[in-house]
Write a structure and sequence with these properties.
220 residues, alpha/beta, globular
């Protein structure tokens, strides 16, 4: 199955470099390139992309608003967004995750890691690693200006336990091992948690876990 990729970045050289890399993979094709967030939204609709590699800082409409529009569009329900960030300086990454992005990618990532990230997100998973991703989310969601959200009171004790492990970046196999479950049971728990909380994917589950206080600073 070929992953249809849309590249959104206001730097032409960056887009072209990413395009060459993506086209080098047998299981991917570039279906469009956008220089602004508004173009990204329009091309996501026109080109029927499976995944958008989205820069955050762009003219006209930034990547966060573009991601929000894509995530809110019922006709684009299957389109995933992988945002680009400079990591250490780009504090908008959490806003992008809240807007509906399925993960983030550091701009100076290795070529093979970019391709793996695209495959991971296109397959319906979130690109969330236990270390740096969790620390980044923790830093901004637990800041004084971060809005509080309702806690996951609707979850069972086991589901709350699973959610806490998801927030720490564990995949289904790792969750199963940690709790003595089968991978299928762990996957079922995660799916039910998403349904109860109305979460789009694992990235939004992480947001819920931090905003509700289930995962606290220094716990990672």
């Amino acid at each position: 199955m070929t992953v249809r990729v849309l590249l959104a970045d206001d730097q032409t050289l960056v887009r072209e470099a990413f395009a060459m890399l993506v086209e080098s993979a047998r299981d991917m094709e570039v279906v469009g390139q956008a220089a602004t967030g508004r173009q990204a939204v329009e091309l996501a609709r026109a080109a029927r992309a499976d995944l958008v590699v989205m820069d955050i800082r762009m003219p006209d409409l930034d990547g966060i608003e573009a991601t929000r529009l894509i995530a809110a569009d019922e006709d684009l329900a299957g389109v995933r967004v992988l945002v680009l960030t400079t990591y250490d300086t780009d504090e908008n990454i959490v806003a992008a995750l809240r807007a509906g992005a399925s993960g983030f990618l550091v701009k100076d990532t290795r070529p093979a890691e970019l391709l793996d990230a695209i495959r991971t997100v296109a397959a319906g998973e979130s690109l969330l690693s236990p270390g740096p991703t969790a620390r980044l989310i923790e830093r901004f969601l637990r800041s004084p200006s971060a809005p509080a959200s309702g806690g996951p009171e609707c979850l069972s004790d086991r589901e709350r336990e699973v959610l806490g492990l998801v927030a720490r970046g564990l995949n289904n196999t790792e969750i199963a091992e940690a709790l003595g479950l089968s991978p299928l049971t762990a996957k079922t728990h995660v799916s039910r948690i998403m349904g109860k909380l109305g979460a789009r994917d694992r990235a939004q589950l992480v947001i819920v876990a931090y905003e509700s206080g289930m995962v606290t600073p220094g716990s990672i």
